[in-house]
Amino acid sequence: MKRVLLLGEALIDFLSDDYSESLSQVQSFIRHAGGSPANITANLLNLGEEAILITRIGDDPFGDYLRETFKERGIDTTYVQVDREKNTSMVFVAKSKGNPKFLPFRSADYCIEKPTDMARLLKKTHFFHISAWSISHHPSRKTVFSIMDDIEGTNTKLCFDPNFRRILWEKDEDPMQTIKEVLKNTYLCKPSDDDAFHIFGRMHNEEYIEAFHQLGVQNVILTMGKDGALVSDGKRIQHQKTVSQVVVDTTGAGDGFWSGVYCGLLNHQDIFTAAKWGSAVAAFRLRTIGSDLPLPSMEVIKSEFLM
Amino acid sequence: MKRVLLLGEALIDFLSDDYSESLSQVQSFIRHAGGSPANITANLLNLGEEAILITRIGDDPFGDYLRETFKERGIDTTYVQVDREKNTSMVFVAKSKGNPKFLPFRSADYCIEKPTDMARLLKKTHFFHISAWSISHHPSRKTVFSIMDDIEGTNTKLCFDPNFRRILWEKDEDPMQTIKEVLKNTYLCKPSDDDAFHIFGRMHNEEYIEAFHQLGVQNVILTMGKDGALVSDGKRIQHQKTVSQVVVDTTGAGDGFWSGVYCGLLNHQDIFTAAKWGSAVAAFRLRTIGSDLPLPSMEVIKSEFLM
Fold first, then answer.
1. Number of domains within chain A
2. Edge-to-edge strand order for the sheet containing B90-95?
3. Inside any domain, residue A104
4. Which residues contact B71 (CB under 8 A, 6 or more apart)?
């Protein structure tokens, strides 16, 4: 069976109890297991695909909670590294009707080390997924670049979630230097229009697609919320309408999209059809509160949203 | 007017909504402005004394909240340093009927720098108060030791809150080396029996008093919860019963005790009477939920608890 290998942040999301435009006003926070690569891993397992997560947590109560959550979700914890010095990473989020304000406290998540049995791990790996978080700091960045070297010239394809935010990087560093290095080796990149804005500044959506291709990305899916998605394989751009009708909670929709896309690609669909599968899983997430509820099978999701 | 100068942690306390024996089980946290030196400063201002706080917060929403809280409590923010790199320190606490579990995430608080106008600041300073947190890490430790040099041979007396917990120090360091260096210059030390246990291990309470004196402390007040306090000036030990009758919430009682003691000393009471004033302020705090409610005047508190 082919698998997706995911490397990146697992962390505690502290989500404000109430809507607020500023984190300095929030009085009460609810704890959630978060981190996009961890969520996509759980999703893929729900969808019946093989997925392995490489991440790093702290040797503390929040790390204990994450590991328990992984087990409940069926995630293999073999590659969940425990850092003896660093704490589990956290993000505080103020729920908002607009763009939610977030404040990261990163620690263990950017210290991911390369597993010793990488060659064996990569053998069955079809897609190697990384988030922008994993390349924002060493030593995790070094780990990613080393694995990028490993997969060069093999059948394993690099997929990059460009969920870039300047605040995650050192103040005196130029993030674009690193991001460009990754993009030129990227098989698939799935930015939201907001991600693309944070990377390239204000441009037309088609120009974002072009910008990613020019930097070497083979396939680009630009998600645009209620305006659907632009899907491009470098030869043609297809505009796909959203299949979502009801939006209750946007949390986890992007991770759902990734999961559906991988499910499509692993099942021999082209990038255009895979994007539709992604849109369907996102629509499923949008309809319910809670990004950590188990997903039904892809067949069920497709029958609801793609028929 | 004589003043107390306090140096140490200001931080966000995330207190569990419900009682729990493990932080890994807590789902909801309420934010509070915390940090013992900050609380004692606010208490002293309530009691009509002059107090100045030297602390350090992050340039983030939690730091903004702390600064706003300081202003509301009348604390002069001149010496509230803002770190551009480090985040505001945080502590997660699981409320417990026994010993509450706590998990610190320290950052800005141990980076306190020496104010440039230290000589001017010290001129009117009668007591220089530090917490164990401030000496657990450089650069804050270096700052404390430099100020200890400044006050040597002057009328400014060093008061040390030995709220020592091993988890606050680097794993490969011997905390006792630093603590001993501080204790030998200490005019007043106010350990709880729990603090003393964490420093010296299991001993009889009178032996704790002796141990502090042997290391150079001039006056020791050992608080023992419902068993009252042992007060020693090095010549005699007095056992003082608690004046507290109703215990609703223990949060802030220790800080209240310190505040009453300082109020007594600044008003020319000896250490035994000052300890009684401390016990009275602690009793006031124990009677109500919330350690950040304004205190009434010392006269009012004394009339309620010491008559």
1. 1
2. A101-105, A90-94, A11-16, A28-34, B28-34, B11-19, B90-95, B101-105
3. no
4. B77
Range picked from B89-103, B202-216, B247-261 for highest mean pLDDT? B202-216
CATH number of the domain bearing residue A193: 3.40.1190.20
Q: Which of B27, B31, B105 is closest, CB to CB, to A27?
A: B31
CA angle A57, A61, A67 (to 5 degrees): 50
Counting every residue written for chain B, the total comes to: 307
Strand order in the sheet with B50-58: B80-83, B50-58, B3-7, B125-131, B157-161, B188-189, B219-223, B229-232, B237-240
User: Both tokens of residue A280?
Assistant: 């369907």
Q: How far apart are the first and last CA of chain A?
A: 27
Best residue in B88, B105, B170 for a mutation probing chain A (most A CBs within 10 Å): B105
The residue with tokens 């124990």 is: B286
**Distance between CA atoms of A66 and A80, rounded to whole angstroms?**
10
**Nearest-angstrom CA–CA distance, B221 and B242:** 13
pLDDT digits (tens, 9 = 90+) for A6-30: 999 999 999 998 888 889 999 999 9
Q: Is residue B101 part of a domain?
A: no
Tell me whether residue B122 is in a domain: yes
Q: What would the DSSP string read from start to end of B102-119?
A: EEEE-SGGGGPPPPTTHH
Tell me if B89 sits within 8 A of B65, measured CB to CB. Answer: no
Reported ipTM: the value is 0.82
- Strands, E assignment, chain A: 3-7, 11-16, 28-34, 50-58, 80-83, 90-94, 101-105, 125-131, 157-161, 188-189, 219-223, 229-232, 237-240
pLDDT per residue as tens digits for the range B244-297:
888 887 888 999 999 999 999 999 999 999 999 999 999 999 988 777 789 999
Chain A partners within 8 Å of B31 (Cβ): 26-29
Domain assignment of residue A257, given as a range: 3-10+36-79+111-305
Whether A276 maps to a domain, the answer reads yes
Band the pLDDT of B98: cuts 50, 70, 90: low
Which residues touch B43 (CB under 8 Å, ≥6 apart)? B255, B256, B258, B259, B281, B295
Of the partner residues A64, A85, A105, the one whose CB lies closest to the CB of residue B24:
A64
Is A169 in a helix, a strand, or coil?
Answer: coil
